[in-house]
Amino acid sequence: MARVVLAMSGGVDSSTSAWLLKEQGHEVVGVFMRHHEPAATTCNTAGKNAASLLPIVDSRADHKQGCCSATDADDGRRVADRLQIPFYALDLQEDFDRIIDYFVDEYTAGRTPNPCVMCNNWLKFGRLFDYADGIGADFVATGHYAQMIARDGERPALLRGRDATKDQSYVLFGVERERLARMLLPVGGYLKPEIRSIAGDLGLRVADKKDSQEICFVAGGKHDEFVRARNATDTSGQIVLADGEVVGQHPGIEGFTIGQRKGLNVAMGDRYFVLRIEPLTRRVVIGPREALARLELTADRVNWLIDSPTAPFRGQAQIRYNSVAAPALIEPLADNRFHVLFDEPRHGVAPGQAVVIYDEANERVLGGGWIE
Predict the structure, then answer these.
(1) Within its chain, how far is the Cα of 242 from the centroid?
(2) For 218, which DSSP code?
(3) Is 67 a catalytic residue?
(4) DSSP character for 315?
(5) Among 67, 68, 116, 119, which one carries the catalytic annotation?
(6) Which of 43, 57, 102, 357 could form an S-S bond across to 89 if both were Cys, CB 3.0 to 4.6 Å?
(7) Contact (Cβ atoms closer than 8 angstroms) between residue 216 and residue 343
């Protein structure tokens, strides 16, 4: 039917996606995005146009080359062999440095970054489209739990995945609207246990592989240590109450995010949370949970997946990947911004995080932006 470039991470979702796409009759080209580990060799390419954009680590049939030695890359390659599809590892180290710089800069500025959204925007549904164009592919596919729906000639709509516990539509809000028509999300209409069952029936060794829970480039989940290793600026300072009373010291503002409770290392008797981070004074302001309540927020760098609205409208706004969307009034503003007024206060509104807008039924992604 069509040639499809599939991002294969070596996990069960993308691996099963490869089989589902093949079952639909597509010609599948598996791609592993090598980024945070340097590639030993970049030699062969799948076409002249692609070569100038994305160096490809040669994937020889005998698999003797050692440049794809990471466990995930090996898992992806074994699945590709099992399904008899070509498999390449793209060297995206330089591109991924941009995401790491963003991650470090945001934490240093007292904001909470979301590198997964940026990875989807810049790499999975960015650079992979460059590669797809270079080899004449019609579509780019991933193993995200979200759905693409096109009805009666209308432009495609991005919807939540069928499995509410695994839904990943939040991290896809930043994909350019023009690219939705070339996106395929094969597992979005399945429940996670169903995907594992399919993989098991196929005899794929990744059927029971654990889901990734951490940021892929931060070892051990210690993002503050990662940031400090790459930024020489001293961001240590005081932990204070809202009235300015000093109650402790901290090694760096990069170790905190709005709404955080654990890791404050101050004995207050009651539970206290991070209310505010002040990058100029390097102070971390803490207080009781009720002080976190926010009825409104403003977002910038907005990406709409519908015709850009010109008047206020009702919708559901989600302020974090693992939070619940809440009813709100969304008002478009000048300079590619919007304002959100919630019906009920929300806790943990963090500058730097994405706020994603869904329709009132809380199913379709309308767009989103970055909390100011």
Answers:
(1) 33
(2) S
(3) no
(4) E
(5) 119
(6) 57
(7) no
Token pair for residue 77?
């390659």
* pLDDT 10s digits, 213-232: 667 778 677 889 999 999 88
The predicted model scores a pTM of: 0.89
Single out the residue of 220, 226, 214 nearest to residue 108, CA to CA: 226
HSE-up (13 A, CA, CB side) for residue 187: 30
User: What domains can be seen in the chain, in order of their start residue?
Assistant: 3-219 (3.40.50.620), 234-291 (2.30.30.280), 293-371 (2.40.30.10)
Pairing of strands 139-141, 183-184: parallel
Three-class secondary structure assignment of 91-119: ECHHHHHHHHHHHHHHHHCCCCCCHHHHH
How far apart (Å, rounded) are the C-alpha atoms in residues 247 and 87? 55
Judge whether 253 and 279 are in contact, CB under 8 Å: yes
| Paired residues of 24 in beta bridges | none
Residues in Cβ contact with 220 at an 8 Å cutoff, skipping those fewer than 6 apart: 214
Cα–Cα distance for residue pair 24/15, rounded to 1 Å: 15
Using an 8 Å Cβ cutoff, are 75 and 130 in contact? Answer: no
Whether the per-residue pLDDT at 45 is higher than 60: the answer is no
Burial class (CB in 10 A: 0-12, 13-18, 19+), 347: middle
Our answer to whether residue 68 is catalytic in this structure is no
Mean pLDDT of 50-56: 47
Query: What pLDDT score was predicted for residue 95?
Result: 86
More confident residue, 268 or 117: 117
| Alpha carbons 176 and 128: distance in angstroms, whole number | 13
Give the whole-angstrom CA distance, residue 333 versus residue 353. 19
pLDDT digits (tens, 9 = 90+) for 262-274: 889 898 888 999 9
Q: What is the mean pLDDT of residues 190-197?
A: 98
Tokens linked to 112:
């909470």
Specify the residue for token string 């739990």: 145
